[in-house]
Amino acid sequence: MIDRAHVVIIGAGVIGASIAFHLAERGLRDVIILEREEAEISGSTARSAAGVRHQFSSRTNVLLSRYSIERLRHFEEEVGGHAELRQVGYLFLINDEATWAQYMRNVTMQRELGVRVEVLTPDEAARFIPRMRIDDLIGATFGPDDGYCDPYGIALGYLRAAQRHGVRLYRGTPAIGFHIDSGRVTAVETPAGTIGCEIVINCAGPWAGEVAALAGLDLPVRPYRRNVYMTTPFPAINAPIPLTIDVGTGFYMRREGQSILMGRSNPNEPSSTNTNVDWEWLEAVIEAGIYRFPILESAGLAEQQCWAGLYEITPDHNPILGRHPDLEGYIDASGFSGHGIMHAPATGLLIAEEVIDGRAHTINIDELRIDRFRRGQLASEFNVI
C-alpha cells in the first residue's frame, strides 16, 4: 500500500475540486484526489463553453443553480481564485407552440423558486442582437441573472484552497481497480500501488462509467463530443449579449472577448472520447446560425481558437449523485450532461453532506440517485443545449 486516506476522489476537474474543498471546509481533510492526466483541470472542465443558468425544467436543477450561482458571485471572497462570473443573461428563442407551452410551465416553476425570468415578445427579444430574424418566433425567455464564467479559475480556486487545507493531489495517477471486502470499498488500485480508503467518490466525468465498471457497477454515463467554434474579432456585435440559444435548431452563441463563441450539438454523433474538432459539422452550425442571425454571415473563423470537449451524458440528462446502494463506501458525482460547471458549488456542498452527515440535506437529491433507473422514475431535463 502506497498511501491511505479517509476519502479518495477520482478526478481533479471542477466537481472533484469542489467536493474536496467542501469536505476540507467541514474539517474532513484526510483526502486524496487522483488525476489520470499529468496536469489537473485539463479535461472537460477546461473545454467547457462555461454557461451558467437558472432556466431549467427540473426543480432540483433550478435549486442547484440558484445555490451555485450565488456562490459564484462571492467566489473570490469565500474560496479564493477567480470565477469571473458575467451575468449577461441567457436568452432562449422559441418558434414552436409545444416548446413554448413547456417553457411557460418552466417559467411558472422558476418564478415560484425565486428565479428572475422574463417572458419576451419577438420584438423585445430582437433588441439584444442586431438584425435577428424574428418572423417565425413565438417568443423568448430571458434570465438576467444567468451568464457565463471562468471554469478553469473556479476549479483551480477550489483545488488550491483544498490543498491549503491539506488535501493531497496525485497527478498522472488513474484509478485502475478497486479492492472490495464484504460489500464495501476498502482501497483504490493505481499504477503506483494501492491507496486504502473508507470512501471513494467517482468524479471522473466522461470516464465515470469506465471507473464504475472497475467496481462491477453499471453507471449509465457516456461521453459525447461537443464542438465550440470561434470567430475572429467581430465588431458588428460590439456590445455584451446574452448567451443566446435558438431552441429550434440548438444553435447557441455568446461573446468571448471581441469574438463570438458558437456551437450546436450533433444529435447523430455516437458516443466517443474524440476531442478533435469536427470541421464537417461546422457547416451545419453556420447554417443554423446565419438563419437566425444573418449578421454572422460576415464573420470570419478563427480556426486555431476552436476546440472540442466532452459532455458526460446520462439517459435523462441529469447527474447521478450520492451513495450507491450496491457498494458501501462508493459515491457517484457524475453525469452532469453539460451542467457540471454551473452546478459544481452545490454538488461539492451536497456530496460533503453525504459523506459527513450520511445524507445530503441542503437540497434533496433523491431524484438524482442512481436507483431512479431501476425504479424507472426518470424526469428528464427538458432544457438541454
TrEMBL record:
GO molecular function: oxidoreductase activity
Coiled coil: none
Gene3D superfamilies assigned to the protein according to its UniProt record, in alphabetical order: D-Amino Acid Oxidase, subunit A, domain 2 (3.30.9.10), FAD/NAD(P)-binding domain (3.50.50.60)
Any Pfam family the entry gives: DAO
This protein's GO CC annotations: cytoplasm
Keyword Nucleotide-binding: no
The entry's keywords: Membrane, Oxidoreductase, Transmembrane, Transmembrane helix
Domain FAD dependent oxidoreductase, residue spans: 6-353
Highest taxon listed in the record's lineage: Bacteria
Membrane-traversing stretches: 6-24
SUPFAM superfamilies the record matches: FAD-linked reductases, C-terminal domain, FAD/NAD(P)-binding domain
Name recorded for this polypeptide: FAD dependent oxidoreductase
Record organism: Chloroflexus aggregans (strain MD-66 / DSM 9485)
Lineage: Bacteria, Bacillati, Chloroflexota, Chloroflexia, Chloroflexales
